[in-house]
């Protein structure tokens, strides 16, 4: 229910913001402006087209950028939870997300970046009982002060979840899925979508199981379950 309310809130903001980039913090404060990039651990925004800030995923509920929605999700790292952003590919009874393939900052050749803490802390509750602090890092000197080596996640990974039926799970698909991983992909899809007999047959017959195929299968499942 909390997930669906978050998505609904995100869509309501999208419909009233003329497609401007924006970030929703854990305390529901909204930061509008121009998002410059994300490495899926943080998001870089020119807030109100005046102040440049980097905000970590643990302080954010979601953001909207370039026509795409991104959510902050907890990932288990040993005994701890680490928050990361995922791009929404499909949502419904089954959710499909991607992670990676973009940069936090544009490529620029500059030697120095001056950092100063931003003002304005807002507390809010995150998932799994975590507390979010809505602070950020201001970057002085405008858009030309960028680091030599920007952060980035060049490899795109995909995750699938069926709310109420287990945790977020990585599904090893690609634009051309490796033959050695297709059996694993098929098993995951049958677990998540196999209660639809028509789709179950399509999954069993599919020999490619690439990212486009899987996206269409999840989309068809969600349409059938509306």
Structure description:
It is a single chain. The protein has 226 residues and is α+β, with helices and mostly antiparallel strands. The chain folds into two domains: 2-140, no CATH class; 174-224, no CATH class. Helices cover 22% and strands 35% of the residues. The chain is built from four helices and 14 strands. It has helices at 2-15, 182-193, 197-205, 211-224; strands at residues 21-25, 30-38, 42-47, 51-56, 60-65, 68-77, 80-90, 95-99, 114-117, 123-125, 131-133, 137-140, 157-161, 169-170. The strands form two sheets. The protein has a twelve-stranded antiparallel sheet. Strands 10-11 form a two-stranded antiparallel ribbon. Strand 7 and strand 8 form a beta hairpin. The protein starts with a helix and ends with a helix. Mean pLDDT is 79; it is low at 13-17 and 109-153.
Oligomer: single chain
Annotation, overall tally of beta strands: 14
Strands of the widest sheet, in order across it, are 9-12-4-3-2-1-5-6-7-8-13-14
Shape: elongated
How many whole angstroms does the radius of gyration measure? Answer: 19 Å
Number of helices: 4
Which structural class is indicated by helix and strand composition? alpha+beta
Task: Give helix % range.
Answer: 10-25%
- The span between the termini is 16 Å
Mean pLDDT across the residues is 79
Question: What is the count of structural domains?
Answer: 2
How would you characterize the largest beta sheet?
A: 12 strands, antiparallel
How are helices and strands ordered from N to C?
HEEEEEEEEEEEEEEHHH
List low-pLDDT spans.
Answer: 13-17, 109-153
Proportion in β-strands: 25-35%
């Amino acid at each position: 229910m909390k997930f669906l309310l978050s998505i609904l809130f995100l869509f309501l903001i999208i419909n009233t913001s003329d497609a401007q980039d924006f970030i929703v913090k854990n305390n529901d404060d909204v930061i509008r402006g121009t998002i410059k990039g994300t490495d899926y651990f943080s998001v870089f925004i020119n807030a109100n087209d005046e102040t440049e800030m980097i905000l970590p995923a643990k302080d954010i509920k979601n953001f909207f950028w370039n026509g795409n929605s991104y959510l902050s999700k907890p990932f288990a790292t040993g005994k701890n939870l680490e928050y990361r952003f995922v791009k929404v590919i499909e949502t419904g009874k089954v959710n499909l997300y991607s992670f990676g393939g973009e940069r936090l900052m544009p490529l620029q050749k500059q030697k120095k970046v001056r950092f100063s803490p931003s003002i304005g802390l807002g507390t809010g509750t995150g998932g799994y009982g975590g507390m979010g602090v809505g602070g950020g890092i201001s970057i002085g000197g405008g858009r030309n002060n960028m680091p030599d080596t920007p952060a980035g996640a060049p490899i795109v990974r995909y995750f699938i979840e069926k709310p109420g039926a287990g945790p977020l799970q990585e599904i090893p698909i690609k634009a051309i899925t490796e033959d050695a991983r297709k059996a694993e992909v098929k098993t995951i899809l049958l677990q998540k979508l196999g209660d639809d007999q028509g789709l179950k047959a399509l999954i069993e017959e599919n020999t490619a199981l690439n990212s486009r195929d899987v996206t269409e299968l999840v989309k068809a499942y969600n349409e059938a379950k509306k």
